[in-house]
Amino acid sequence: VDVICLEMPDGQSVLPTLLPVAPLRLTCQELILSRQRIGDPGCATACGFVRAWGSRLQIIRLLECDLGDVGASCIARLVSNRLQPAVGLRELNLSANRIGDRGAADIADALPMLDSLERLLLERNRIGLVGAKALGVRLPRSNVRELVLGSHLGGNPLGPQGVKALASALDDYMPRAASDRATRLGALSLEDCDVGQQGAEALAEYLPKSCLQVLSLARGNIGDSGAEAILNALPKTLASLDLAGNGLSDVSGSAVGDAFYRMPQLAVSLAQNHLSPALRLILTEEHGTRLRV
């Protein structure tokens, strides 16, 4: 059998879903079915097909597969099987689907069992406040180093309160007994996640306690006040900050200039903002390729 035909219930799909199973036999370490609209039924079938070797999975990529909360829950059950958890899983990419709060919460509940998971990509889904809260609670008890909830292609409707709930996961000063993890988040992408000024201020509260190296808040509606709060709270480890498309003025531009002097390794993007030509010229001449305007 190379293809499984899944008939959708009436009204859900005009054409049956075709699940190619031949690629799943090629390796016991990958589950990759990107850009194949298998939906939740196809995801459940694929998870059942690979369950026998689920503990050996290292990469799961199901981008643009039309997965909803049910599909995300199937993935969560597959990787967190108590008898055979996917302890070697390094990357979980479920970007560009229809996953909402319930699916995100199930994924979050699985994180403490995935000792090797370093990359979690959930951009372009429908995760809101409840899903963000679940991730905020579980992330400190995981080894995830890179969390992508938004990119230049789109984000999630977290909103300021969702970002605030997620911000506590940046606290690397948690007691060892509570966290029991050697690694913490190194990269956080919240592009197009409606961070807002309140969300930026919540992040600023925890940023000094973090070891972040990369932070992206592009197109987050944070404004000058939010940007200033972030720039005044940057951890010494940060190497890249993306503030593009936030309606920022020369006030934020000057604050970026000050940050450059404090942090010689820092690079910042202020593209698609409202800096004056004079300040753009000054910053570019002084800081060169460290600044993108």
Automatic annotation (TrEMBL):
Q: Which Gene Ontology MF annotations are present?
A: GTPase activator activity; small GTPase binding
UniProt keyword terms in alphabetical order: GTPase activation, Leucine-rich repeat, Repeat
> Is Lipid biosynthesis tagged as a keyword?
no
Q: Is the Repeat keyword given for this protein?
A: yes
A single GO CC term for this protein reads:
nucleus
Q: Name one Pfam family in it.
A: LRR_6
Give one GO biological process term. nucleocytoplasmic transport
Q: What is this protein called?
A: Uncharacterized protein
